[in-house]
Amino acid sequence: MGTRSASIFNSTVAGFAIATAWEVGVLDELHDSRLLDLPEFCEKQNLHEQSVRAMVTALAAADVVVRDGDMVLPGPAFAEVYQDKSFFHWLTIGCGELFSKMPAVVRNENRVGQFYRRDAAAIGFACRDINQRAFDPVFWEAMDALDFDVTTVADLGCGSGGRLAQIAARYPHARGIGVDIAQSTLDSAVEYAGSLGFAGRLDFVRGDVRSLEPDPRFSEVELLTCFMMGHDFWPREDCVATLRKLRGAFPKVRRFLLGDTARADGFADRDKPVFTVGFETAHDLMGVYLPTLAEWEGVFAESGWRCVNVRPVDVPAASVVFELA
Predict the structure, then answer these.
(1) What is the CATH architecture of 149-269+283-324?
(2) Which Gene3D superfamilies match (predicted)?
């Protein structure tokens, strides 16, 4: 096997190892303590030592860690990988089945009905971290600029409830409603909110954000948030219709903070940044249209919203927070 093939092959295995190492606590332990005693850690966490050793070997092959007998230390790539760990989890755990079925998905005869599956709970878990790392700094800049007190907020595509929990912590008198289509994700959100003591203030509703109708639970919402799912509104005609429906479903909304990642233009194939290839490939496989930022900016006025600000997000590429009124 040639050097390039070996690098690609080993990196593929390492992607799964990174996601697993984060989920079982290895990455956090190395980040916090800078050293991990492998047998001791496995015994403490009730992990199969042989499997964990294999996982660590895959990490070492990609320079994420360095092994010294039973001791594991951060490697040259650790800091960057730790920062991007949720992207790997989104790709390998959340979308693993979609990518493994690529040979079937690319055949037109198979693209009928529900022809792919993803792990909604795993995607919600990863997106909580992606939001915290990528969107949160910009989101809170927008929140700090609001000219009204937040009392009732709805989060569309709420995932595991991370954003609503943050808002509840920042605004002690605020109530929140999370809307998501995946029951497994909502179950995680209910559990997460309860663990933080927010069960009485946060409610979760199963529904398709693209076709929400007026609901008494939505009638007093004044702040609407939606992150990492706006691309599901597209193509254009559907997006305009969805945004109009949201105007009707939430009649008292004063600000809509819409954060999303668009299709990234201007990168050569070999120069695409982290997440972009996985994000765009996954949505192309699913048949989901990904708009560019320019296409996004062309739909707001037609759908009854006024874009009062556009706040760029550094990572992932082509990500922004639109402030709509």
Answers:
(1) 3-Layer(aba) Sandwich (3.40)
(2) Vaccinia Virus protein VP39, Winged helix-like DNA-binding domain superfamily/Winged helix DNA-binding domain
Tell me if 4-88 shares its fold with 149-269+283-324. Answer: no
E strands within the chain? 36-37, 65-68, 71-74, 152-156, 175-180, 202-206, 223-227, 255-261, 307-313, 319-324
Tell me the domain boundaries of the chain.
4-88, 149-269+283-324
Instruction: Give the pTM.
Output: 0.88
pLDDT of the chain along its 325 residues, tens only? 468 999 999 999 999 999 999 999 999 999 999 999 999 999 999 999 999 999 999 999 999 999 999 999 999 999 999 999 999 999 999 999 999 999 999 999 999 999 999 998 899 889 889 988 899 999 999 999 999 999 999 999 998 898 999 999 999 999 999 999 989 889 989 999 999 999 999 999 999 999 999 999 999 999 999 999 999 999 999 999 999 999 999 999 999 999 999 999 889 999 999 999 999 999 999 999 999 999 999 999 999 999 999 999 999 999 999 999 9
